[in-house]
Each structure stands twice: as C-alpha cells, then as structure tokens.
Amino acid sequence: MTPRLGTASWTFTVDGLVERPTIWTWDEIHALPASSYRGDIHCVTTWSKLDMHFDGVSVDTLLDGVETAAEHVVAVADHGYTTNLPLEDVTGGRAWVVDTFDGQPLEPEHGGPARLLVPHLYLWKSAKWLRELRLLSDDEPGFWETLGYHNYGDPWREQRYWGD
User: Fold this and answer.
1) Does the predicted model carry a pTM greater than 0.85?
2) H/E element, 143
3) Nearest to 68 by CA among 22, 136, 18
4) Virtual CA dihedral for 102, 105, 109, 113, nearest 10 degrees?
5) Mean pLDDT in runs of 10 for the chain (164 residues)?
6) Quick one: CA torsion of 110, 116, 117, 123, rounded to 10 degrees?
7) What SS3 class is residue 164?
8) Is 56 helix (H, G, I), strand (E, B) or coil?
9) Which of 33, 84, 88, 112 is disulfide-compatible with 106, CB 3.0–4.6 A?
C-alpha cells in the first residue's frame, strides 16, 4: 500500500549519535538552500533510468554543524521501513532529501512527499516516504538487508544479495 502523507504534518528528523536532534517541518526544510541532482538511478531488479532530475536538500546541508562520531546512518521511512548506509555515502554531495522530480512534486508512488536519493547505490537504499536519518556508531542492517539483500548495494559491482 502506498502511503499518502500530507505536507502539513510532515516532519523530518536527524537524530541518534548527535548532541541535539534536529526536526524540520515541511516549510522549514524548504527554507534551507536547495540542491539538485541530474543523473542516473539504478534498481536492483536490473533497470536503470538515465538523466533523471530531482530537487531537494543536500544531506550535507541537513548535517551542517552537526557534531557526531557516527560512521553509519539508518534512513527511516514513515511506515517503519529502514535501510542502512555508511555515513560517507550520504555526505560529500552524494545524497539528497528530494521532493521534486522534473519540476513536479514527487508522487506518492515514488516516495513523495520526500524520499532519500543516493543515486550511486541501488534504489532500495533511497528510502521512500523519508522521515528520519538516524546517525549510529555501528552498522544496523535495514529491512531488505536483513532479508538477504547486499549490505552495500553498489550497482557497478552488481551487489544485489549477500555473497555478491
């Protein structure tokens, strides 16, 4: 079932191994400097889409000023779905919280109102219906990773399942 989340009550949180958790409303996150991604995305089911254009906020912007000893992050979706990533894979201009695709609001079927976008990894690492980034000292495998998907998910190495 596809969640239908309204922006009036939507919030986004950065918490975990931080001195002070930060929570943004829809309007507050849109007051941050905007950032765009134009490039390719890849699904674990072997399809790719080329020259995609998303707009949102860079994870670097969201973590600006955050002091942390974390090395990992868990992305948490509205309905409890999680996926894990090394922190270095969502920083350095490599990940965004996006809400716009080709100039239009991101449709619920594609993760709207907002999703994580980590385009250099398989798309299951780009959690739909994003609500939280939890910074952690240790890796904590997410939903698909606990069911046998690869812990990292590099499409160029075809890391689909544990053992790939």
Assistant:
1) yes
2) helix 143-146
3) 18
4) 130
5) 88 96 97 97 94 97 95 96 98 98 95 97 97 97 96 96 82
6) -60
7) coil
8) strand
9) 112
